[in-house]
Amino acid sequence: MRYAYAPYSRFQVGACLLAEDGTTYTGCNMENASYGATICAERVAFGKAISEGRHSFQAIAIVCSEDRKAYPCGICLQVISEFMKPESIVILEDTSGMIQYQVKDLIPNAFHLGDTDA
Length: 118
Ligand code: THU
Known about the structure:
Layout: E1 13-19, E2 24-28, H1 41-50, E3 57-64, H2 74-83, E4 84-94, E5 97-102, H3 103-106
Parallel strand pairs: 3-4
Antiparallel strand pairs: 1-2, 1-3, 4-5
């Protein structure tokens, strides 16, 4: 979170992804003057992990520095559902505490490979 590049929103987010083999991968949000080029902390962590050969994960923690939990956006939920099981854990932490979900609580009807004929 302390490395977040968030000069536009000032909303700093950190993520820590726990791979099945116990390795952890961190990420922070990285914003851009062209706002749509912003990448959330979760997807930065996934990118680091995937690029090092990890494809399955036990849990992800997402933390923000304010009294407001950083619920994953729709794009991040789709990425989470690609690489994590419905029962896997999503932990959200802010200045007032932590709350724990399962992936299926946050994205109950995920679109998966095999849902199309492609
Ligand atoms: N953000 C994340 O990095 N993760 C979340 O779960 C929610 C939002 C970032 C994106 C952007 O840099 C800032 O928070 C404000 O939306």
